[in-house]
Amino acid sequence: MKIVLDDLLLTKDMPTTAGSRMLAGYRSLFDAEVIARLQAAGHTVAGKAAVGEFGFDLLGETSADGALIANGALQNAAAKSVKARKADAAICMDVNGYPRRAAAQSGLISLKPTYGTVSRFGTIPVACSGETVSILAASVADCREVLRAVVGHDDKDGTSLPASDCDRVLQGADTVRKVAVLDVFGGDLSKAEQILTENGVDVCHVDGKIFAAARAAWNILMSAELCNNVSRYDGVKYGYRAQNFTGIDELYTNSRTEAFGDLLKTVILFGSETLSTDNYMKVYDKALRVRRVIKEAFEALFAEYDAVLLPAVSAMTYAPDTVDPFVENGYTAPASITGLPAVVAGGVQVIGNAFSENVLLHIAQLLS
Amino acid sequence: MQYETVIGLEVHVELATNSKIFCSCSAHSFGAEPNAHVCPACCGMPGMLPVVNKRVVDYGMKAGLMLNCDINRVTTFDKKSYYYPDLPAAYQTTQWFAPVAVNGLVEIETSKGKKQVRIKQIHMEEDAGKLVHDIREDTTHVDYNRTSVPLIEIVSQPDLSSAEEVEAYLERLKTLLRYAKVAECEMAHGTMRCDVNLSVRPAGSDVLGVRTEMKNMNSVEAIKRAIEYETARHIDAIENHTEVLVQETRRWDDIKGKSYAMRTKETAGDYRYFPDPNVMPVVIDDEWFDRIKASLPEFPEVKRARYMDEYGLTAYDAEQLTKSIALCECFEAAYSVCKNAKDAANWSISEVMSILNVRKMTYDQLNINGHALGELILLVSEGKVGRANGKKILAAMFEDTALQPLSFAEANHMIMSNDTGLIESVAKAVVEADPKAVSDYKSGKEKALMALFGKCMKELKGNCDPQTLREILVNIVNAQ
B81 CB near a chain A CB, below 8 Å? Predict the structure, then answer.
């Protein structure tokens, strides 16, 4: 298969910019681990797709190269190349849900595997505690084939799970008896519910209010980690350096001021604030506790249900500058903050228990 | 009024692992070409993920156990953010929330007797790089060899009260960490560095005074001078109101003998600590803990007592030997071969020490083969090699650690001769060539005989029993 990589994956033979002016022309000294795994499975890298600056926006609209817009709606570069069959599938970094939103809006499949089952070695770090290498494909079969190539333990990634866990991703059962619909997120899921019911799946509605708290907590954790991860881009060692400065402090300030976009700067300021001595316990630590509570709530659900159904997006198109990514990510935050696997198919999102990728792909097959 | 000084120390010690804490680069940066031991990970390039070097955790635990600490069986790493060009990722990975070791106790001894110093915690972290300022070009270069070299920071409670105690404490840390072989602790190499927190209060008071911190002190003598200076400055400020003391970080200028307040910009800042999501908590299970515990060395005091009980050494000899684990190992290996503790101790202390002095080496740099020393001791005690030649062989052992004393002695004609005929002919020739010495001796000058004795020994290349030579020589001289 021909695979396109999003520009958060480091490549030796092509520049990697993370969509930022800061890394214009940056060449990595090494390839992302997934590239070696794709090649070992006989796939080829077809090229790279633009991302928004450090990949946490809606669909890539904050890219240093500008937003992709068609018919008054934001587009995503990776989804566009898969849709146009320039590539058979895309490997993306699901930092803050963009591949899932892109899949929902362009009728593709997006699978975000269980955290720790695909190596993050060689990916630009943004929100390390939740971001995952994910797959965007035109069919469930393609998605499964790419998954088979990239899943596996990697010693170079300290968060990589043992091989026995990674094996469960590929070998787990795919039986689906009961699915819960999370009412708290609203949206019209009736078509998906109908398909599942017709296929003998028991569909129940649960309130799931607690899962709405994932958004605020994830925004705190993501912003804090992002702030820390992008602090390495200081104009000293590589990347953009301001022309005018006197002294090291001005070199830092001017380089970052000139190279970073507005949304990124907002997140840096917010993230920095959440980690201050005054706020750590009040804000950051509380977000960590919310993460734990949400994980437990999912565990309780998965004791009874095989998967949960919820929307992936608030609308099937986004007009530029009308949707706030830090509100819209409420749909994707529950899977991001917990590291649980999620699939988007038929325009809706399904979250499964850890290592239940086969359940999710089975449901995706039904829905698409 | 009487005052007392209250001092707490933060001691950074570089761990002697082969590789860095989160990547496989060599950790031996001292003296290397700039930026020879670097990779994308320790240069802070994006995409590399930290993988904890287990050996660093081993050493952190060992250090904790040597200092009587409790070990946190789940220990975690956190990120500490600040901007400085020697910190390539703009954060340092350290331990803030759950350090590897806590609540320790170290006993020191000074002229005032014994004292317990409490250890608050020991945490593991990565070192930063080095900035090299080029004054001629007015530029600054960055050397990342030292970035991510593993460190432990040993934080004491404010239990120290004088320069003498601080010196004793640092000396004790060095001894214990060197015994455990986890660190070199050489201030001159930067493998041990010290921040001094100091305040002054009326003697007997239980309220702490205003605290100042002096960072990155790198010699014991400088630390002692800085403590004396700061103590006097604090007392002067309290008594004479010469200045208002504020809690601040100060820089010690050892050449001028003064401390200076650092710019607030250099000291201000919120480090924004948070758990590093890329480093999973390190879980120390029983098997791991027991293995490290079992690997701890005998403590210096225990060893000293054993040397006296088991080997019958004097308190002085036992004390001298146990100052350094390297010396202990040399002694024990030598003893295992020569089976004479007194000889092994004498050679290890006086002969080895005099060569170390000449070579300007510390005990811990001792690299000779203790078994070979034992063989050498046997050669000398059995009369096969003269003592003077024995010392020459020992010196040669410092050059060549694989040296075999017996074959070296044979190859260099250092084997003692029992051939009295040879000794007699040499003595005769020496005596006949120097009739003045003979007459001097006969007129009562004892020294003259010594001169003849020396000449004979030289002719015989030292390979002669001194007693035999003396007897033969006296007979020949008297017969003249």
Answer: yes
Rounded distance, CA B167 to CA B165, Å? 5
What domains sit in chain B, N to C, each tagged with a CATH number? 3-287 (no CATH), 298-411 (no CATH), 420-479 (1.10.10.410)
Give the range with max mean pLDDT: B63-67, B420-424, B476-480.
B63-67
What six digits make up the tokens of B329?
């190992």
- The DSSP line for B191-231 is SEEEEEEEEEEETT--S----EEEEEE--HHHHHHHHHHHH
pLDDT (tens digit per residue) in B186-243: 998 889 999 999 999 999 898 889 999 998 788 999 999 999 999 999 999 999 988 8
Which pTM does this prediction carry? 0.89
To the nearest whole number, what is the mean pLDDT of chain A? 97
Q: Which residues of chain A have pLDDT under 70?
A: none
User: B-contacting residues of A 112-141, CB under 8 Å?
Assistant: 120-125, 128-129
| Dihedral Cα B351, B352, B358, B360, nearest 10 deg | -160
Name the CATH topology of A2-217+283-367: Amidase signature (AS) enzymes (3.90.1300)
Residue A281 burial (10 A CB sphere; 0-12, 13-18, 19+): exposed
Residue B230 neighbours by CB under 8 Å, 6+ apart: B196, B198, B212, B214, B250, B259
CA distance B351 to B362: 14
Residue B233 to residue A340: CA distance in whole angstroms: 60
> From CA B162, how far away is CA B185, in angstroms rounded?
21
Residue A30 contacts B, CB cutoff 8 Å? yes
User: Pairing relation of β-strands A2-6 and A44-49?
Assistant: parallel
* Mean pLDDT of the region B45-55: 95
B11 touches chain A (CB under 8 A): no
CB distance A55 to A18 below 8 Å: yes
The shortest C-alpha distance from B18 to chain A (Å) reads 19
Contact A276 B274 (CB under 8 A): no
**Tokens 């156990």, residue located:** B65
Please classify residue A37 by burial: count the beta carbons closer than 10 Å to its beta carbon, then call 0-12 exposed, 13-18 middle and 19+ buried.
Answer: buried
Say yes or no for a CB contact (<8 Å) between B270 and A276. Answer: yes
